[in-house]
Amino acid sequence: MFWSGLYNALLIAAAAAAVPYYGARMLLTGKYRKSLGPKFGRLDPETVARMEGSPRIWVHAVSVGEATAAAAIVAALRSRLPGACIVLSTSTETGQEMARNLVADATALIYYPLDIPCVVRSVLDLVRPDCFVPVETELWPNFIRICRARGTRIVMANGRISSRSYRGYRATRFFWKEILAALDAAGVISRADADRLAVIGMPAGRIQVLGNAKYDGLAARVSPELEGEIAGRLGIAPGEGVLVAGSTHEGEEAVILDVYRRLLEIRPDFKLILVPRHIERGEAVAELIRRAGFADCIRMSEIMGGRLRTNERVVLVDVIGELFKVYSLATVVFCGGSLVPKGGQNILEAAAWGKVVFHGPHMDDFREERALIDDAGAGIAVANGDELYEGIRELLDRPDLLRQKGEAGRQAVAANKGAAARYADLITDVFRPPPVSETRSTSDRRTAGAVPVAPCSSS
After folding, report:
1. Using CA atoms, how far apart are residues 171 and 168, in angstroms rounded to an integer?
2. Element (H, E) at 272
3. What is the pLDDT of residues 184-219, one digit of tens each?
4. Cα separation of 232 and 234, whole Å?
5. Rounded to the nearest 5°, which phi and psi values hold at 413?
6. What pLDDT is attached to residue 242?
7. How far is it, in rounded angstroms, from Cα 309 to Cα 314?
8. Terminal C-alpha separation, the chain
9. What is the pTM of this model?
10. In Å, how far are 41, 148, 180 from 142, measured between CA atoms?
């Protein structure tokens, strides 16, 4: 109770500081207007009316990244429980937009409520979940505590704890231990995630290593139709040379533009598609492009507004939800957040299309993904712009090797499918006790056919 009271006191203090900031942003930019009411528990009555079926499962994906894994898990749940009410929530408006594009199997989409007890109770009264499924590691103390008090089962899916966040969790494990004890089960991506979760306080016997459901989501989304649609919109012809720089952060765009300028000296017809990680940086990145001497730049928002791309060399993607499709057009890819210390971004999206992915040394948040793709030969680490240019130039001079490496990455992603089904099994198992005569352990069943990682010990 002491830690709960302290947490709520800190929550109130944080809210007092945050309300003026977010209120000003909402008034000035219109951002957060769609999600503000729902986050305070004001759900659309029509959405609530659609929440019919049994059992009732609430899956939560914070934002864009988690939505891919959530989509695959929801699809697997729907195949097992066709009459279930499956509610999917996100915390961000960009995540909600991505979920609407990806998830066809959810009964309803909502926003996750603020972790204020009265708000949480209000939303839980409307959704009435039998089971709550946080995707990755999204644990809000009041929400978890109130779910537990109501008898709602809680199962973490696709759990991961990055090395950066682990330091904070470990330093405050006295607080998290009680919260993690409320979870019925936790399925995690890797052995490292399992070990970290156990150190923080999750009972080791409830943790299972099941792999990454994002593999399923990505492999299922790859299609010639999707590639054709984005190629038509951007006016990219088949076989045209394209460098796609995805999820870039401040400090990386200048490097990419310099590399691209050098590429044009040997490949004058090459195009650049630049996709900043945060679209609110669109204007700043557009200015960088202009200052780099590329006045012939067109924005994706302009194309979506009706403008046709003609001869513009550079396309700036300043809208949400297009990156995965854009990767299909790439000859080679650079994945951002990695030349600067931001922990990297998800290189699986490009690899799923059979693309070679260059990345910097800072991939701490995606160690397993990097290992998989690098080991396949489709991921190439570079330390700076010079290495990136030389690496791209070498592969462009050897097109057969470029195709071979890209195909190896695609096969590596495809070979690791199946995690979503294992998470769906883990979730559905909480609704029924195992048979008394069961001789094989749940952990043994789960890890059969899983990605090649050691199962979590119960000791």
Report:
1. 5
2. strand 271-276
3. 999 999 898 999 999 999 999 999 999 999 899 888
4. 6
5. -65, -45
6. 98
7. 10
8. 29
9. 0.78
10. 14, 10, 12
Give the burial string for 347-384 (b: 16+ CB within 10 Å, else e). bbbbbbbbbbbbbbebbebbbbbbebbbebbbbbbbee
Residue ranges of the chain with pLDDT lower than 50?
A: 437-459
Query: Around 454, how many Cα atoms within 13 Å sit in the side-chain half-sphere?
Result: 7
What pLDDT, on a 0 to 100 scale, did the predictor assign at position 335? 98
Q: What tokens were used for 250?
A: 């401040």
246 forms bridges with which residues in the sheet? 275, 335
**DSSP secondary structure string, 188-240?**
ESSHHHHHHHHHHT--GGGEEE---THHHHHHHH--HHHHHHHHHHHTPPTT-
**Pair 273, 299: CB distance under 8 Å:** no
What does CATH list as the number for 25-213? 3.40.50.11720
Give the chain's length.
459
Q: Which two tokens stand for residue 223?
A: 């299609």
CATH topology of domain 224-415: Rossmann fold (3.40.50)
Query: CB–CB of 365/164 below 8 Å?
Result: yes
For residue 419, the surrounding DSSP H or E stretch is: helix 419-429
Residue with tokens 């009435």: 128
Crossing angle (nearest 10°) for helices 141-149 and 117-127: 50
Tokens 């790859």, residue located = 222
Q: What is the CA radius of gyration of the chain?
A: 23
Residue type, 399: P
For 9-26, give the DSSP string: HHHHHHHHHHHHHHHHHH
What the block records as the tokens of 430 is: 């909480």
The C-alpha atoms of residue 426 and residue 217 are separated, in whole angstroms, by 18
The pair of structure tokens assigned to 1 is 């109770």
How many CA atoms lie less than 13 Å away from 193 in the CB half-sphere?
27
Predicted confidence (pLDDT) per residue in 130-172, tens digit: 999 999 988 899 999 999 999 999 999 999 998 888 988 999 8
Can 25-213 and 224-415 be said to share one CATH topology?
yes
Q: Can you give 285-347 as a three-state secondary structure string?
A: HHHHHHHCCCCCEEEHHHHHCCCCCCCCCEEECCCCCCHHHHHCCCCEEEECCCCCCCCCCCC
Token pair, residue 297, equals 């730049």
Domain boundaries, the chain: 25-213, 224-415
